[in-house]
Write a structure and sequence with these properties.
CATH topology of chain B: Four Helix Bundle (Hemerythrin (Met), subunit A)
Oligomer: heterodimer
Distance between the termini of chain A: 60 Å
Largest interface: A-B, 24 and 20 residues
Shape of chain B: elongated
Helix content of chain A: 40-55%
Number of helices of chain B: 5
Structural class of chain B: mainly alpha
Strand order of the largest sheet of chain A: 1-2-3
Number of domains of chain A: 2
CATH architecture of chain B: Up-down Bundle
Helix content of chain B: over 70%
Order of helices and strands of chain B: HHHHH
Number of domains of chain B: 1
Strand content of chain B: under 5%
Radius of gyration of chain A: 21 Å
Number of strands of chain B: 0
Chain lengths: 294, 155
Amino acid sequence: MRRPIQALILPVVLGLGFFWVGTETRPLTAADVPAHQADLENGKLIFNVGGCISCHASPDATEVPAGGKPLKTPIGVLYPPNLTPDPETGLGPWSDIDFVNAMQKGIRRAGGHLIPAFPYTSYAKMKVDDVLDVKAYLASLAPVKNATPPHQVIGLLIVRRGLGLWKWIGLDETKWVADPSQSESWNRGSYLVNGPGHCNECHTPRNLFMGSDFTRKFMGGPHPEGKGKVPSLRGLVERQRYKDQADLVSAFQNGETLGYEHMSSGGMGEVQSNLAKLPEADISAIAEYLLSLK
Amino acid sequence: MISKLQFGLMAGVLALSLGAGMAFAAMSADEAIVARKACMKLGHGGVFGVAVPIFKGDKPFDAAALKAAFENEDKVCADWSKWWGPETKQGSAEQTHALPAIWEDPKGFDAAANAWYAADQALRKTTDLASFKAAFPADGAGCKGCHEKFRAPLQ
């Protein structure tokens, strides 16, 4: 009691130490990534499942992932980066391990944590081979020189560091696993929905810590950009949103072109446009899995 | 000098007109929302109810049925331009999926609505299955173009 300041030193130093250690990045090393034969076709497919173009488009070219289209989020305006292989402004100098660290660990090539508006929380579930195929597909695109503006986030450095703590709760790195009691197509759908498709990011509500609340998986919740409410994905047939699996497949393929009015608002219009590019077997697998959610 | 009576009268008139104004605004917001929903569900929905089965090949091309659906659409959507005043952002009894973006970006909203209108007019000019099938996807894309930005997700 006689020396209150001195008495505070130890807990403060300990606290800062815990913060520093707790917020460090723990990247994978090259040895963690398996030898890989790139499959560009699969890379393109996964790119479309993820709908990467919806955030990584450039303001003036909607079909090229050259980045820079502003993304308004609750913490500020983000400018998603250029994914084309431009050596200065894109992914040109990125190694496979840089890409896997970004996609599955949420770690920047320059060091530090990525803001989880980039849904690495879902991509962490993916098969590394699929991640590497996306990398190979992106590397096969024509390079576009486009330096994206810095994110407009107040206290960005502290936010980035603090995300290390958030990851302890918000980032579950266990990989997706197949359910042997289900069909192959159901498992394919489950993988696409929970991994690259990152449907949980909007359709599963978030808890106090802004992590996905998996006790309420796919039950819908507030829209991340404040556009009303994201609908639940449970009981889609029971609630008479779709007649059956074929109807939901048609909805993904055609969207509002055939009057599927649930497929256009709150960002779902872009999701539907991206999913419509998939082979029918994959769309069908996604529909099979979704309709099994009661 | 204003007498107590004059003051009382002025206050009374002010209160009455405010009350009337609020009642009028609330009523018109609900009325506008009801009318918007009727235009969407009965007008546009009615056209889609006829058009989609034709487009998918479940039913034969039927110019008369399409014409009737378009005429009904014109009828229930006739007062469209009167339904989007700033007082109609929210109803009191009626729920709406209209997003604030409609009033924040009125030019964008009009452009999106006009893009649909142009596609719909083109669809009405079609005279056979081939021309109908060629024109129909743009009509639905017009719905999507407006709903993407200006309507909250349906539950």
